[in-house]
Design brief:
Keywords: Membrane, Transmembrane, Transmembrane helix. There is one protein chain. By secondary structure, this protein is an all-alpha fold. It has one domain. 87% of the residues lie in helices and 0% in strands. It has 4 helices and no strands. α2 runs antiparallel to α3. The protein is elongated.
């Protein structure tokens, strides 16, 4: 399953680039909104730092034109971490 998704990702990489940036940034901003809506101080800063860092690393990997496998893995990491942060803070 993973190799099939990766092969499709590689073949349509240039088409997926704008979609990936928009998806990761939107998920990150939704997670940041939920994190900032909480009343915890220290945990809020840690979660927000994690959210922003993961999304920025993913966007930097695209801009640096890293290998497609690295970008694909960072996309999965970004989406999973922001989804987890959203679920924690709902």
């Amino acid at each position: 399953m993973y190799s099939k998704l990766l092969e499709d990702f590689r073949s349509n990489y240039m088409m997926y680039v704008p979609l990936m940036i928009i998806l990761s940034s939107c998920m990150g901003s939704i997670a940041a909104m939920f994190i900032l809506g909480q009343e915890r101080l220290f945990a809020q800063y840690v979660e927000l730092t994690l959210c922003v860092s993961v999304c920025m690393i993913f966007n930097a990997a695209i801009l640096a034109q890293m290998k497609t496998k690295i970008v694909f893995n960072l996309l999965i990491l970004s989406l999973l971490s922001t989804t987890l942060l959203i679920l924690i803070n709902i």
